[in-house]
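Tutorial handout. Part one gives the primary structure; part two gives the three-dimensional structure as tokens.
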Amino acid sequence: MDGDISTTVDLHAEFENAGVREVLDELDRELIGLAPVKARIRDTAAFLLVDRTRRQLGLTQDTPTLHMSFTGNPGTGKTTVALKMAGLLHRLGYVRKGHLVSVTRDDLVGQYIGHTAPKTKEVLKKAMGGVLFIDEAYYLYRPDNERDYGQEAIEILLQVMENMRDDLVVILAGYADRMDRFFQSNPGFRSRIAHHIDFPDYTNDELQRIAGTMLSTQGYHLSSQAEEVMGQYIEARRDQPHFANARSIRNALDRARLRQASRLFNHKGPVNADMLSTIEAEDIATSRVFSGGLKIGEPA
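Part two.
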């Protein structure tokens, strides 16, 4: 390129004007923990901002590959981050609409010959201009079943990911080990995925804070004794099958509110707003997670 580039750009001003900070602040407010994930999202936002500026100055013409892989256990915020990523891409001009279409294998793969292509194409049509989030993406590939039609969906997805990458971003999600095997079996996907983000499990302290936040948004709170029992619940539940991080906590709180309602209904006398808003220790301690129930005041 001949001569000096006289045009200058204030990237920090662009960052503010594009509304990127707003999206990142929402991510911080709505998701507890996940520091490495948030750092990667910020790095990705900076990369996209620089790329957009380079294109505006005529330094490059090609749209970068933005397809992503989110790996981690259930309940670690992958869908929420995908939604924020869709908003970020829209604000920076990489997708037209900024909506998120979340699907699983059943939304893409048919059970009979001739059903898969129309299903997959219909999903892709809905997702155009935004982000397509495929959860447990490895279930698309079932080599042990000769009559499985997942491979047809894969071939359509790969073609669209390559040819329509100016108008669609695909995020594949699932357990890390299974996604690794999926990519090994489908190198076409690996070559089209530019950003790999791993979502760590939440710590016990983070799950405790998540529980408090979930209750607060519904107008509830834990009593001081219930706070202690909730901590014991989290520690015990983590070691049991099918633990799903924040999802398991949400389910536990739903059951605790059911127990609270039953307890209040059987209460002799009137109830007040505080009673209606407080989850007590007994509402958690009777969970099946504590085999036979937990006696209040004793360790889990």
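Part three, for discussion. The two ends are 69 Å apart (CA to CA). The longest helix spans residues 35-56.
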